[in-house]
Amino acid sequence: MLDTYSLDTMARDIRDNNAEKGWDLVALHDWHYDKYKIPAVLALITSEVSEALEEFRSQDLNKFLTELADVQIRLLDLAGGLTGDFESYVVSKHAHNTKR
């Protein structure tokens, strides 16, 4: 059921799928020991945002939203590798933003 599908559950599912396909995953030790892996993933997220911009310019809403989904998937894959509780960061930041 989608309404109970947390960000952390989705991150685990995304990472499980990526691991099953043999794709390279970010892990917490990469934060400390690999100065290239996390920036490379951030560049991939940026490329998905750029693709979304291109779809916006072409005024294709469905493709635009698909690219935003790619951004979310890559972001959750990254965050899920660094913490099992990314959702608490999102909730905390949102609460902070509501008070600004």
Polypeptide structure, described:
The mean pLDDT is 95. The protein has helices at 7-20, 28-33, 37-57, 61-82, 86-98. It has five helices and no strands. With 100 residues, it is an all-alpha fold. Helix 1 (7-20) crosses helix 4 (61-82) and helix 3 packs antiparallel against helix 4.
Brief summary of the model shown:
With 100 residues, the protein is mainly alpha-helical.
Total strand segments: 0
Average pLDDT metric: 95
Portion in helices: over 70%
Our measurement of the CA-to-CA distance between the termini, rounded to an integer number of angstroms, reads 33 Å
**Largest beta-sheet details:** none
List the keywords.
100 residues; mainly alpha
Furnish the topology, listing elements before pairings.
Blueprint: H1 7-20, H2 28-33, H3 37-57, H4 61-82, H5 86-98
Helix pairs in contact: 1-4, 3-4
